[in-house]
Give the backbone structure.
Amino acid sequence: MTFQRAINESQQPAPAVRDATSLATPEPVAGRIGRITYVAADAAWPAGAAPLARWLRANPDVLGDLLGMKLVGTDDEVPGGLAAAVFSDQAGRHTLAVLELGASSEAMLGSLLIRLSSVQAGTAVWICGQPRDEHLSAVSWLNHSVASRFFVARIRAARIEASEPAPIFELVLRPPRESAGDPDQNGADAGRTRRAADHSDTVLERPTA
């Protein structure tokens, strides 16, 4: 027969003490990192370009940074129901921006030229989802043939995960830069207008030789 001696409270084993570090708040897990995806403009804004035109009018610095100009929005209305906005520079000169979310079209080019005179703008910006080569050639010809200045920019959208789409603008074509004392300033030199996507900002300057 086996006898077991009773253990009083003084002989009870001490409870295990947790290490102080185990009581500390666990370190937070690193923040989640999203991923950017790019979407065609007409897919990102299927309702059309009118909301983007209003957004541009309220954010004139976006267009100004793209063109290298200081612009402010105006309340001028563009007739014809176009998705368009009119801006003004520090000298009070008007810039007309028209938006076309899909590929560039002859209809929009014609509307741009008509509206340019109606709003008395000396500068025009054609923003489209996919500028076509024949339209870039036509705008380049206009830059050498008329007093107005024409830009072409491409628009697409970016999302971070399921966020709202944000517009991204890429300058594709811009007018030639005029230099004082240029003997051929009014001539039609095919090398004066370059596509911004093909050449750096410096190369876009007209060669001196």
User: Anything to note?
Assistant: The mean pLDDT is 80. The CA atoms of residues 13 and 55 lie 73 Å apart.
